[in-house]
């Protein structure tokens, strides 16, 4: 029995607890790019003292990321994107990361 488009496909435990949160982390890092850059710059500049000298940058980065991690609408957005990618993979057999590559053209 095939699921209709209105129904959401069943998501396994690993998808809801690992794969979708992983997607959320990647997207949150993009949304917090400015804070990620500031923290990385601080770490590169201070070396081993980064634990002490980059506390403000680290706190700002954690706060930005946490806002996204706790946002249920953001989770739902990532979940829907994951489902779309999963259904496309089931349909085509091509993973999302491979889909963006150019297909060879015949001469």
From TrEMBL:
Domain of life of the organism encoding this protein: Eukaryota
A single GO cellular-component term on record: mitochondrion
UniProt keyword annotations, A-Z: Disulfide bond, Mitochondrion
Keyword Hydrolase on entry: no
Membrane-spanning ranges: none
Protein localization: Mitochondrion
UniProt keyword annotation of Chloroplast present: no
Family label: Belongs to the CMC family.
Name by which UniProt lists this protein: COX assembly mitochondrial protein
């Amino acid at each position: 029995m095939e699921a209709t488009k209105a129904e959401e496909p069943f998501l396994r435990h690993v998808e809801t607890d690992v794969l979708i949160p992983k997607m959320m982390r990647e997207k949150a890092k993009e949304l917090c790019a400015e804070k990620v850059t500031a923290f990385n710059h601080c770490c590169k500049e201070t070396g081993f003292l980064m634990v002490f000298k980059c506390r403000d940058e680290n706190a700002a980065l954690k706060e930005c990321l946490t806002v996204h991690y706790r946002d249920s609408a953001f989770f739902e957005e990532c979940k829907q994107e994951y489902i779309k990618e999963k259904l496309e993979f089931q349909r085509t057999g091509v993973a999302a990361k491979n889909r963006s590559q150019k297909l060879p053209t015949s001469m």
